[in-house]
Amino acid sequence: MRKVSVDNPQLRGRIGDFVARIAGSEERAPLSEHKMMRLGGSIDIREVAAIDDSGLIAGYAQAAWHRGSLESKGHWAIEMVTGPEHRDGATTAALVEAVMDEIGDDGAVLLWARAEDAIAAATALHWEESRRLLQMRRALPLAEIGAAPPWLTVRPFRMSVDERAWLEANNAAFAGHPENGNMARRDLENRMSQEWFEPEGLLLGWAGERLVASCWTKIHHDGSGEIYIIGVIPEYMGKGLGRVMLERGLDYLGRVRGVRNALLYVEASNRSARHLYAHMGFEVTTSVRAFSPPS
To answer: Are residues 145 and 283 in the same domain?
Structure first.
């Protein structure tokens, strides 16, 4: 087994095929969307691959840089995927160490363990769990939706018009968040370029001329719908807008698009959001754990 940096288009193409093959044969996504969008190469990633003795790809690891904000420093987020025959932990641990060598001392690190071998590797390296992301699901459609405040206007996103307003509102709502905060125009445009993006599925809540809340939905290839990003700016929190926007996002997915199952992701530590989602009928189905090196 040898470890190599991903520095040529041919190898990167093989890695794309490797990840797609595993995604097609297993129920779970081998990498998060953030990592999948960077498989084509990016200035803010580090990549390594493990090649077995026959020359086939045995595993792949990627570290992507998440910019910080005034409230939080940036960090490297690592994810990896290994072939079914290389999940004894050795390949995974080697990938972690190799991508850490690529990063060096250039910032904090978080390892998202999406499979058991990644958890085993983090444990063997004496890394400690620092975050946990819960997936929650519920059936659709909603039986009913509540009334919105009379001063709130909810309408779909307008291409080439609402980008700046959404970025300002999102970054205010997620100030200090290690992934969703401090988004730049290129981050938004990257997501808008994905085949699943629908302007009608990004619902914006306006108080007069000010964007104060939004609910971005996404429909997956398997037909399930996701509450992708939902946020309320700080000055308008506590007014019930989270529920208002969530209901309208679920109504769009269920009644308008005919989706029968909805999912979302929430930090395990975010008790207020978890309470809202549980009250709306969502139940925890699975989780993804994140580990940090010992300090």
So the answer is: yes
